[in-house]
Amino acid sequence: MSLYKYASPAAFYPLAGKLIPWFAGLATIFGIIGVYLGPFAAPTDYQQGEVYRILFIHVPAASIGMFIYVVMAIYGVLALTFNTRLSAMMMEALAPTGAIFTGLALWTGSMWGKPTWGTYWVWDARVTSTLILLFLYIGYMALVNAIEDKKRADKAGALLVIVGSVNIPIIHYSVTWWNTLHQGASVTVTAAPKMASVMLTPMLSIGIACWLYAIAISLVRVRAIILEREHGRNAAWVTAEFATTKGVAAS
Amino acid sequence: MKIAIDVQNSGETPDNAPERGFLVALARDVKLAARSKGEVIQALAFFIVVASLFPLAIGPESALLKRIAPGVVWVAALLSVLLTLPRLFANDYADGTLEQLALSVYPLPVIVLGKIVAHWLMAGLPLALLSPLLGLQFGLESRELVVLFASLMLGTPVLSMIGAIGAALTLGVRGGSILLALLVLPLYIPVLIFGAGAVEQAMVALDFSANLSLLGAILLLGGLVVPFAAAAAVKISLD
Prior knowledge:
The complex is a heterodimer. By secondary structure, chain A is an all-alpha fold. Chain A has helices at residues 9-41, 55-82, 85-117, 125-146, 150-182, 197-232, 236-244. Chain A has one domain. The relative contact order of chain A is 0.16. Chain B has one domain (18-238). Chain B contains 9 helices and no strands. Chain B has helices spanning 18-35, 37-58, 62-84, 86-94, 97-103, 108-137, 142-169, 176-203, 209-238. The radius of gyration of chain B is 19 Å and the shape is globular. Classes of the chains: A mainly alpha, B mainly alpha. The interface between A and B is medium-sized, with 28 and 30 residues.
């Protein structure tokens, strides 16, 4: 038995179904640990006060938002080179989660920025790059939704994400240099903060919880996409799946 | 409208040589554009109108206008090129010519490159040529005008290239023009930053060559990669 068989949506569907409870369960456990350690157990920061606790969610959200785009680009390459339908379905399933985490990073960042930097929004290089990343997600989702032919939508979306991922380093450096040209760095977020382990542990556990949640929710979404697409193709196993699942009307 | 492809073959290259595909596509699109000059002039007029809106919105204070001039001219150029992008493929897609081009003996990336160059000649080059005039209205000095012109000469071809990928992906898609803007504008940001940045460097008497070099580097990289990506996008839309 080879792992490749899971490239087929029909084989991946039950596997995803088995994996979801594990990821979701572990996400809940790490989430509970993190939510206890972060807001309650960790001490107040002597410089930033209580506000720094926003970073427990901000940092994981920002990293996941960026990483999911890379994962999508990898799936995009797979979708275009091997013509695997599941890769494109995974892209479609990952995009909303990536966009949500990117948006969450921007939102929590501005919530943190107001008390710390004194303003909700700075045209800082990182903030600007993250905003552009959000635009890239929105563009991908808009393109895939606008094309009615699913096969074409898959390939078009894959190509767009690959082009976008090639552009991301260029965008990042252009924004960084633009920022240094326009204004002196009033606040740098680039310097790695030396964190005490009482503060690092909650961030790690919330980070792990967010990762596991992202995987679980993407698998839920990809299962829905698989059912929708395969139902449209009148695949026999989908009809059987609908027949055995109570509460889901087999129309 | 039917237009014969009439690039004279001198006999030195065989009829199916790839470079002939480039010339055929270029000559055809230039000829088509020359027969509807209105579109070229409209894009230029749009460029001027958008740039003129800024003094009206912000006020006639000359120091401030000079300060924002590079950004305003570049944003106006970006939007003007954006509006002309559907011209690249949409008509050919609608009447089936694009399919014929994709089936022709010439490699599709070469044909697409020809179309991109033709698009730049009709949409980007006029903007660059007119930009010193706009710069004058905003009070830029002669040295800054030269840098503005140079930055647009290097940057607008990249706008046509990236735009070609977006235009090909959105062919025949409902709500295509806004979607095209949404896809393409974020990818235009580096060009905007380096282009406007070069002029700003010149305004404060700094060395602007780094920005122009970066624009040139993006242009070379784009010229190498974009024809293939845009051709792939055309194929996806024709499937």
